[in-house]
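Hi all, long-time lurker, first post. I run a small reading group and we've been trying to get comfortable going from sequence to structure in the token notation. Rather than ask abstract questions, I figured I'd post a concrete chain and ask someone more experienced to write out its structure so we can walk through it together at our next meeting. Sequence below, copied exactly:
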Amino acid sequence: MGLRWLWRIWCSAALLGGVALPAAAADAAPVRINTSELPPYVSASPEAPGALLEIVNELRRRTGIASTVEFFPWQRALHLSANAPRTAIFPLTRMPEREHQYRWLARLYHENFVFMAARHSQFDVQHPLRHKNLKIGILRGSALAYTLKELGYQHLVEGKSVDECFRFLKSGIVDAVFGDRAIVRSTLKGHGESEFLISEPLRTPTTWLGGSLDFTDAEIALFQKAMREMVADGSYAQILKKYDLPPSP
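-- Answer (accepted) --
Happy to help. Here is the structure in token form:
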């Protein structure tokens, strides 16, 4: 028996039981939502799944669209989301290069992309634009690689995970790492935070739940309505506070 048929049975049972589902959700095929381990936003830990995973799970509940969340290395998650129907991915930085590659289901949070370097490194985090000749570590598949190249950074070293980028930095393979400030700070915990310095944000884009191009306008409306409701009833702010994340502007 296929997943779509099971979903229709579940919807019918829910409606008979008095649970009203949006029409767009009742008719929708199941969705696979891809993500990667990116604390404090996403974690495979049941005790602390991460702020954005909790937000996405609440969106799933409120929209009523059947879905599963699966973990992959970030580059793999991107590939699957770009090449398979009924897939979504988060946290996906919204950039001009991606604008027409995805349907933008819900704005999740803002990002602050910073440089991190060892305290005594030749990379001066107070003047990062002076060091375009040095090696910069970045998560493989990050849209910010375009930004760095446009700014003149030509020596980018991609890591398959945030932890691998950090290992590159500690071992001297790269002179600095470029990434989201909250993720960088989370990575530093327990690794001698005082030995590293963080720059001011170089870019402040937004991160989204992005979907494959076969998502309908009605489904997008469902996700965005659910997000507005989460903001209005305070549940969105409560989740961010739980992870010591500032409100999204």
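A couple of things your group might point at:
The radius of gyration is 20 Å.
Residues 36 and 73 are 6 Å apart (CA to CA).
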